[in-house]
Structures are given as structure tokens and as C-alpha cells.
Write a structure and sequence with these properties.
- With 194 residues, the protein is mainly alpha-helical.
- It contains 9 helices and 2 strands, in the order E-E-H-H-H-H-H-H-H-H-H.
- The radius of gyration is 17 Å and the shape is globular.
């Protein structure tokens, strides 16, 4: 063992002693979503890093955030909305004021960030021009960092602290679409992160 280092049994990594362990391990992510372990290997470290940046680090926040992205991304399968985005055309509440904005700014990232307004705000927050390059929001690391930013920016941490699953679904989705699936992930997450 190297002096000043610790061994993380969960991940098998040797880390400097001042480095906190990851919030999300590969094993935990697999236990939650039961997907291909390679996918978990890919997502766990970046989720850990960006969730910590946006203070999604308490058990109740982790439960709600991971349950949300489980629903929104189909268990880490989709980083771009399957639909064309045409349904968002002309949606002023999303900032879609120009012809073609609905399709151009359709849902991307693990939480499906949607609309010109959100793309403009996440661009300012992360220092990347998603307005001119919207497809970047589906690429690593932005599919994760943009989703963590959206969660934080929309006050979801505070809602997650109340441990009221319906309130989270309504904030993210505007209704209760995917609520039963969300609840399955939420309850499973509670047994993993205590």
C-alpha cells in the first residue's frame, strides 16, 4: 500500500487519503438498475463526480435523483428523447420561440433537458454552447453534468429532502408519468444508500 493512500474495497481503487469514496459504485448502480455491468462501469464514476458537484449527495437526494434518471433514461439506455421533439414546437414556456426549436432542443441527457430556455441556461452554467451545439448534451460528460445541473437548478434537492416521490415526479415531468417505475427504483435505492 502506498503511503498516504487508502484502498477502496468496493471499487478496487487505491485513492489518495484525502479523496472521498465515490457516491455511486459500479455494484450499487448495477443493483439499482440491473443493467449491463459495462454500462455501470461507464456511468458510476461520472455520476459520482457530478452528483457531488451539484450537492446530490445525501441518501434522500441520491434515491430521488437515481430513480428519476432511471425512468427518464430507460435505465441509462437513452441520452436523447426517442420522439422527434415536434410536440415542443412553439412551447413558449420552454423558450421555443423560433421555428424548429422543438426538434432542435428536444430532450437530451439522462434527465432529458428540454427546450431552448433550458439549453441556454445550462450553457451558461457549464460554459459549453449547447444552444449552437445541442447534440453535445447527449455526449459524455454532458449527458450527466447537464442533468445534475438541471436537477439542482430546479430545486429538486430540496424536494428530495421531503421524501415525497410524487412531488419529485411532478417537478421533473410536470405530472405523474412513469410514477410506478419511479417508485420501484426509489424503494430499491433506499435499500442500497442508507
Amino acid at each position: 500500500m502506498l503511503a498516504g493512500c487508502i484502498y477502496n474495497k468496493e471499487s478496487g481503487e487505491v485513492l489518495p487519503s484525502g479523496v472521498p469514496p465515490p457516491l455511486i459504485s459500479i455494484t450499487e448502480l448495477f443493483a439499482l438498475y440491473r443493467v449491463n455491468k459495462t454500462k455501470c462501469l461507464y456511468f458510476a464514476p461520472i455520476l459520482s463526480d457530478w452528483m457531488r458537484v451539484f450537492d446530490i449527495a445525501t441518501p434522500s437526494r441520491i434515491w430521488a435523483f437515481l430513480a428519476t434518471i432511471g425512468v427518464e433514461s430507460g435505465k441509462l439506455l437513452y441520452v436523447e428523447e426517442i420522439a422527434s421533439g415536434q410536440a415542443y414546437e412553439g412551447r413558449k414556456d420552454l423558450g421555443n420561440i423560433y421555428a424548429g426549436d422543438g426538434v432542435k432542443y428536444k430532450g437530451r441527457g439522462l434527465i432529458q433537458v428540454t427546450g431552448r430556455k433550458n439549453y441556454t441556461e445550462v450553457s451558461k452554467a457549464l460554459g459549453v454552447d449547447f444552444v449552437e451545439n445541442p447534440q453535445l448534451l447527449r455526449e459524455f460528460p454532458y449527458c450527466v453534468s447537464g442533468s445534475c445541473w438541471w436537477w439542482w437548478h430546479n430545486g429538486c434537492n430540496q424536494i428530495a429532502d421531503t421524501e415525497e416521490p410524487k412531488a419529485i415526479r411532478k417537478r421533473v415531468n410536470g405530472g405523474l408519468n412513469g410514477y410506478s417505475e419511479f417508485c420501484r427504483y426509489y424503494e430499491r435505492a433506499k435499500t442500497i444508500w442508507k
